[in-house]
Specification:
By secondary structure, this protein is an alpha+beta fold. It contains 25 helices and 22 strands. The longest helix has 26 residues, at 316-341. The protein is flat and about 100 Å long.
């Protein structure tokens, strides 16, 4: 079967756009092929700074012939309808149509035969449309060709299109089309400086090989592997260790077609700056990696850069040029850092009076006061020193006004810790300045210092309650204030630190501290709790746990101790994995289903205690006795928060429930016996609700 080779050769594509662009190209072409009946065997896309490339192999040489039936008007329909049908189907007269018998009447049916086309002709039709409609995040329209204004909107000027199609054993054909005056062909170009001459290519294998000979590594992953391996080897050879950075590696691999790794240096005096600032300076400005001393673990005055050329002087000029750029950047960073140290964090706070946090929630200064008050309330609940938690909450946001954070926003919090330590603050207070933002994602570290935990909870809960109060809740995929992340952060802080606190009480306290009052203030804490329940389900789902069990526990009501909810869900999950749990669940579901049917039929609930005098069978008596014992035992276990014991107690219901359904007919002919047995089923449901609402559990 024939293969397709497509290359779009242009000026430099921004590194951040390359991976998605390659994936978009593969998706758009293959989707169109399938839509045209050309089912392929495999496809792979590539990107370098100057090209997008795609290979699709195993494409049929020709579309299959299509035969379709099209239903027309009824026999005897108006002439206008008949003529429209003939025109749409290409029939010359109704004599060429079939007649289909139908209860609603006899209809004309046209049999339309559409012969398949050669795949190369289909490609010549779909590829220019894909190029013209390519979904670049940003694009440009440029220059005139032959005196006419350009019509193509592309990320950067497009210079050449390579498009070949043919079987492996034959010379491929060019897929002929043009876009904005650019004719397709078999010509591409190598490295801009080291091999700029035109290259004639036939199919993907020789295309990739010829590019490599012309100093272009086509595969982005191959470029990453080269950069990483060479950087590790270069640093190791000098007794150093590369500070790995996957995001930077992804970006750098998109800046070069022929990676050449080199090492530069800067003056040791700049090592007095915090390591994170050095790294941010070198990373952000020159896209270089920093280096550690393998013995001390501290940063050295070295950096690793990736060039796009094998220089005649071995790279000395390139290294020197990077050093010349990095030196003043580090000098600026050092100046910012030293300037920041001259002003205490607390002395910066008055400026927050002029900075609006949100138009409906007041200034940053007002928000800091709210966090300070809430942290003081939470501190005793999490074992934190109240004075330290209050102090940490007061200072935690102050570094937002420093020069270094203004230049490098990614080090906010971290610089607060450095400045707090420099001005002699307690170590826990300083740590909280950094850690109160954590955890910021599922992989982020959760603070364990009680002071950090208190401030982190206060910060996140104030954010959640504030935006809930002004009705700025997440909707669909939109969450501009990262409230889902804040809720997950609260859940992880509580669960991983084994904290006991009432979320509704804390939320109510946070609400009381707001200057804006919610129109639905009474419902807000419980509404927010439902949001936490949803976030908890998401987290459990990501961990592979049963998220439906969260509903089963929350359905009991009055549950706002997240730690106990998590523990109860864990115990319930383990119980339902056992045979006793599975069988008991089936029995409870059967009881609930019967009750549901009979309650609907009788239009009443079968609550109230059963009459023991009406028990006529051993199985009824045994079940009633077991329910009484289990309910007391399970409730006592739940009260002492021993959920494993509560589940063990529930397991004792399995034999009498099984025996009851095996031997007892619930809908007895005697109405009183029937009612009594339905009440007994209700007792099963009531007893198990000491642990969870089993009706919410999926089978």
């Amino acid at each position: 079967m024939p293969d397709l080779l497509l290359e779009l050769f242009s000026e430099e594509i921004p590194a951040r756009m390359q991976a998605k662009a390659a994936d978009d190209l593969r998706r758009m072409v293959t989707d169109k092929l399938v839509a045209e009946g050309l089912v392929y065997e495999g496809a792979k896309a590539f990107a370098t700074p100057r090209r997008l490339a795609l290979t699709v192999h195993g494409i049929p040489a020709r579309q299959p012939d299509l035969k379709t039936e099209r239903r027309g008007p009824k026999m005897g329909a108006p002439d206008a309808a008949v003529q429209g049908f003939l025109k749409a189907t290409g029939l010359n007269s109704l004599d060429e149509a079939k007649i289909q018998r139908d209860p609603k009447g006899d209809f004309y049916i046209a049999l339309i035969e559409k012969p398949g086309r050669d795949a190369i002709d289909v490609l010549a039709e779909i590829l220019p449309v894909i190029i013209r409609t390519f979904p670049w995040p940003k694009s440009m329209r440029w220059g005139a060709r032959s005196g006419k204004p350009g019509s193509l909107s592309w990320v950067r000027p497009l210079h050449a299109i390579t498009a070949t199609f043919g079987p492996e054993t034959e010379e491929p054909d060019v897929v002929k089309f043009s876009v904005d005056g650019i004719e397709t062909g078999q010509t591409t170009y190598g490295h801009r400086f080291m091999a700029p001459a035109a290259i004639s290519v036939r199919r993907f294998e020789d295309y990739e090989a010829k590019l490599k000979a012309a100093k272009v590594i086509l595969d982005p992953q191959a470029r990453k592997d080269i950069i990483f391996a060479d950087a590790k080897e270069l640093t190791f050879a000098q007794g150093f260790e590369l500070v790995e950075d996957q995001v930077l590696l992804d970006e750098v691999s998109g800046l070069v077609e022929w990676p050449v790794v080199m090492m530069g240096s800067f003056e040791p005096e700049y090592l007095a700056i915090p390591e994170e600032v050095i790294r941010a300076t070198i990373r952000n400005n020159q896209k270089c990696f920093v280096v550690r001393d393998s013995k001390t673990g501290k940063l050295t005055n070295k950096f690793v850069l990736t060039a796009n050329i094998e220089a005649a002087d071995g790279g000395k000029t390139i290294v020197s040029g990077n050093e010349r750029v990095i030196r003043p950047r580090l000098s600026d960073a050092k100046f910012f850092y030293e300037t920041d140290l001259k002003t205490k964090l607390e002395d910066r706070l008055p400026k927050f009076e002029q900075i609006v946090f949100h138009e409906k929630l007041g200034t940053q200064a007002a928000r800091i006061k709210r966090i300070e008050r809430l942290a003081a309330e939470i501190a005793p609940l999490v074992g934190a020193d109240v004075a330290k938690a209050t102090r940490a909450a007061r200072l935690a946001k102050a570094d937002l006004l420093t020069e270094v954070v203004g230049e490098f926003p990614e080090v906010q919090g971290l610089m607060g810790k450095y400045y707090a330590l420099a001005q002699g603050e307690d170590a826990s207070v300083a740590a909280a300045c950094e850690e109160h933002y954590k955890p910021q994602g599922p992989a982020d570290r959760v603070p364990t210092d009680p002071v950090s935990v208190a401030v982190a909870l206060a910060d996140k809960i104030d954010t959640l309650v504030g935006f809930w109060a002004i009705d700025e809740k997440p909707t669909g995929s939109k969450d501009p204030y990262a409230l889902r992340r804040a809720a997950l952060g609260v859940i992880r802080l509580i669960a991983e630190n084994n904290l006991r606190l009432s979320l509704m009480k804390v939320a109510a306290s946070a609400l009381a501290g707001l200057s804006v009052k919610s129109a639905d203030a009474e419902r807000l804490p419980s509404d927010l709790l439902a949001f936490f329940a949803d976030r908890l389900k998401v987290q459990l789902r990501e961990q592979g746990a049963r998220h439906d069990l969260v509903d089963a526990v929350f359905a009991l009501g009055g549950q706002d101790d997240l730690l106990m909810i998590v523990r109860r869900v864990e115990a319930l999950g383990k119980f339902l994995e056992s045979d006793d749990g599975k069988n008991l669940l089936a029995g409870i579901k059967r009881a609930s289903n019967i009750l549901g049917i009979e309650e609907k039929k009788d239009k009443r609930a079968f609550d109230g205690a059963p009459d023991a005098a009406l028990y006529g069978l051993v199985e009824e008596k045994a079940l009633a006795k077991a329910i009484g014992e289990v309910q007391a035992e399970a409730s006592a276990a739940v009260a002492r928060e021993d959920f494993a014991a509560a589940m063990s107690a529930m397991a004792k219901l399995r034999p009498p429930v099984d025996a009851f359904f095996d031997k007892v007919r619930v809908n007895d002919d005697d109405p009183k016996v029937r009612e009594n047995r339905l009440k007994l089923l209700n007792e099963i449901r009531s007893a198990t609700r000491a642990v969870a609402d089993f009706s919410k559990i999926q089978d």
